[in-house]
Design brief:
The chain has 306 residues and is an alpha/beta fold. Helix content is 38%, strand content 19%.
C-alpha cells in the first residue's frame, strides 16, 4: 500500500496527517505562522513518519487564494491574501523539493468537499458545495465529483449579496468590506456582536442579521451552482448550530416560489453539517495525495500500453 501524507494549511491552524483516503493514522496540529516556518514544520513531521521508506505522495489543501492551474507560471503559489506574510509565497514547491515526491494541491475547501463527497455528507451527489465559516468564509464546489477550477477557483466568500434591511455594518473584509466573509466570518461576527460569537446566546436577536446573510448565500448557490448538497462546516456553524436552521428557514421566501422543490423541509436535508467534522480537510488532503500519485503513474502506464 502506498504511503500518503496530507497537509491541511489553514489560516489559523495547520494539520499534518499520514494515512490513506478514508483513514488517518498519524496526526499533528500546530498554529499557522509564516510560510517558511509552517511548511518546514510540516515537512519535518512527514519526515519523522518515514520509518522504512519515504512517503509516495503529499496532498496540500490550503487556504487561498491559490494558483491551482498547472498551466500557469505561478502554479502552487499563494496570491493576494489577507494572511500576513503569505502573499506570493510558494506552497507546493518547497514540499515537493524537500520530500522528492508528487504533490497534489487544491484549496482547503475543495479538499474538504472531496472528502465529504467520498466519505461524508455528500456521498452519492453529483454536485455539491462545501462551505466553511470560521476565520474566513470559503467555498469548495464539486461538479460531477470534480473540483471546479477555471480562471482561479471559486471564491464564494467574496461575493456581495443583498443586505438585511437597516443593517449598516461596513463589513470586515480587507478587500471588499461587506462581502460574505466580511459579514459572517468569525472576526466579522465578533465585530458586529461586540464579543466572540461563541459568547452570544442562541436566542439573541443579533443572530437575525447573520441568518439573513447566510440565507442570501444559500439562495445564490442554489440558483447558480444547483448543488444537490450544501455542507456547512467551520467553527462558527459548529459552535452556533442554531444559525443553520435559522438561515434555511429564510431561503424559500428569498426564492419567491421560483423553485417549488425548495421547501423548508427539502432544504433542511440538503443544507447540512459535515459528517467528517474536523477530519474533512485532512482527509481531503490525503485524497489529493492519492490523485497526485495516480497522475504521475498514468503516463507510465500509457507508455507501457503503447
Amino acid at each position: 500500500m502506498h504511503k500518503l501524507a496530507g497537509i491541511e494549511l489553514g489560516g489559523t491552524k495547520t494539520v499534518v496527517v499520514l494515512g490513506q483516503p478514508g483513514r488517518i493514522d498519524e496526526r499533528l496540529e500546530f498554529a499557522t505562522t509564516g510560510p517558511t516556518e509552517t511548511l518546514d514544520r510540516a515537512i519535518d513531521a512527514i519526515r519523522s513518519w518515514r520509518d522504512d521508506k519515504p512517503v509516495d505522495a503529499v496532498g496540500i489543501a490550503s487556504f487561498g487564494p491559490l494558483r491551482v492551474s498547472h498551466e500557469a507560471s505561478d502554479h502552487g503559489f499563494m496570491l493576494d491574501t489577507p494572511k500576513p506574510g503569505w502573499s506570493g509565497a510558494a506552497v507546493a514547491g518547497p514540499v515537493a523539493a524537500a520530500l522528492g515526491c508528487p504533490v497534489g494541491l487544491d484549496t482547503d475547501v475543495n479538499g474538504a468537499a472531496l472528502a465529504e463527497h467520498r466519505f461524508g455528507a455528500a456521498r452519492g451527489c453529483e454536485s455539491m458545495v462545501y462551505l466553511t465559516i470560521g476565520t474566513g468564509l470559503g467555498g469548495g464546489v464539486l461538479i460531477a465529483g470534480e473540483p471546479a477550477h477555471g480562471l482561479l477557483h471559486p471564491e464564494i466568500g467574496h461575493v456581495r449579496l443583498r443586505r438585511a434591511p437597516g443593517d449598516t455594518f461596513e463589513g470586515a473584509c480587507a478587500f471588499h468590506g461587506d462581502c460574505m466573509e466580511g459579514l459572517v466570518s468569525g472576526p466579522a461576527l465578533a465585530a458586529r456582536l461586540g464579543t466572540h460569537p461563541s459568547r452570544v446566546a442562541a436566542d439573541d436577536p443579533a443572530w437575525e442579521t447573520a441568518a439573513h446573510d447566510l440565507a442570501e448565500l444559500f439562495a445564490m448557490l442554489i440558483l447558480t451552482v444547483s448543488p444537490q448538497r450544501i455542507v456547512v462546516g467551520g467553527g462558527v456553524a459548529g459552535k452556533q448550530p442554531h444559525l443553520l436552521p435559522m438561515a434555511i428557514a429564510r431561503v424559500p421566501a428569498l426564492l419567491g416560489g421560483y423553485l417549488r422543490d425548495c421547501t423548508r423541509e427539502k432544504l433542511a436535508g440538503m443544507i447540512t453539517p459535515p459528517l467528517l467534522g474536523d477530519d474533512a480537510g485532512p482527509m481531503g488532503a490525503l485524497i489529493l495525495a492519492a490523485r497526485a500519485l495516480e497522475d504521475r503513474r498514468a503516463p507510465a502506464r500509457a507508455l507501457a500500453g503503447a
